[in-house]
Amino acid sequence: MEMSDWAKGLPLRAGENFLGLYQPSPETAEYWEGVTRHEFLIKRCRSCAKLHHPRRILCSACGEPGMDWVRASGRGTVYSFSEIHRTTGIFSPATPYVVGIVALEEGVHIFTRFLPEEGAADKDNSSIRIGSAVSVEFQVLEQGMLLPVFRVGGE
Question: Which of 72, 73, 90, 133 is a Cys-bridge partner for 142, taking CB atoms 3.0 to 4.6 Å apart?
Answer without folding.
Answer: 90
